[in-house]
Every structure is written in C-alpha cells, then in structure tokens.
Amino acid sequence: MCSSDLDDFPAHAAAPPSPSPTPSPLLGAHTPSTDGAATKALHLAEFALTALQAHCAGNNAIACGWLQGASVSEVVRASTQVVAGTNYAIQVRTSKGHTLHLTVFEQAWTQTFELTAASLSVPSAGASLALSVHEVVTSEAALALDAAAFHAY
Predict the structure, then answer these.
(1) Are 137 and 120 in contact (CB under 8 A)?
(2) How far, in Å, CA of 97 to CA of 95, rounded?
(3) What is the pLDDT, as a whole number, of residue 1?
(4) I need a surface site. Which of 30, 96, 104, 141 has the fewest CB within 10 A?
(5) At residue 119, what are phi and psi to the nearest 5 degrees?
(6) What's the pLDDT score for residue 22?
C-alpha cells in the first residue's frame, strides 16, 4: 500500500510549509562576489594597481606618490554588476595601509578592458578619524588595460 507525504499528517494538521523562494538579485544591481569571483577580484586589483603605478610614473600627484611601491594586502569588498559587460567594484587595503577603490569594466566580445575609476582613501594626519580621498582615475579619463596580459596573469 502506497502513502503520500500528506497521508502522514492528521486531517486537522496544516500542510508542511513550502520553502521560501530565494530572492533573485535585481538586474543591473551590484552583487557581492563569491569565493571564485573574489579570487578574480584579487587578481584584477593587483593587475589594476600595477597599471596605476605605471600610469603614475613621472606624475607628481600626491595619490600617485602613495601608490608607488604599494601592493595589495587584502580585498576588503568586491562586487560585480552586469551591464553591457561587467563592472567589478573592488575595495582593497594596500601594503601602505591605504584603501584603494577600483572599478574595472570588462566587455569580452569587444575586448574592452579598462579601469574606469580609482580613488585612494588615506587617513588624515594626527588623531583625526577623517579620511582624505584622492581620485587617480575618473570615468571621463578611463585607463585602458591589456585584456590579453590580464588573462595571462
């Protein structure tokens, strides 16, 4: 004799609760990176920092000076946004204790790969909790990156 799962419940009992649907992310919204994407975010940050340092060579902007000789210590936060390609928003701490905010845009089918924004947050001197933020790259002057070199990285 076969019985269904509902036969196991008394007539007066409520049916078992149905699982709650998992909310899907909003289209076009930033999505926090998973472990695999976080590894890519680390590689993107290291690659972008190297490109920034080359871009800053011979530039006397204060943020460029703070970037020279720095390396990525850790990824603090990373997310992706699918648009007409993928935006990677990455926040890293540098070996000099500064926070570097990067936005990298990749559009594989057109071989577009660029650093569209980079800013450096530096603690102000003294006992202040204030940060000074210095833009190094803006969307108006994106820095082209070498996609082939990154994928070989």
Answers:
(1) no
(2) 5
(3) 47
(4) 141
(5) -140, 150
(6) 53
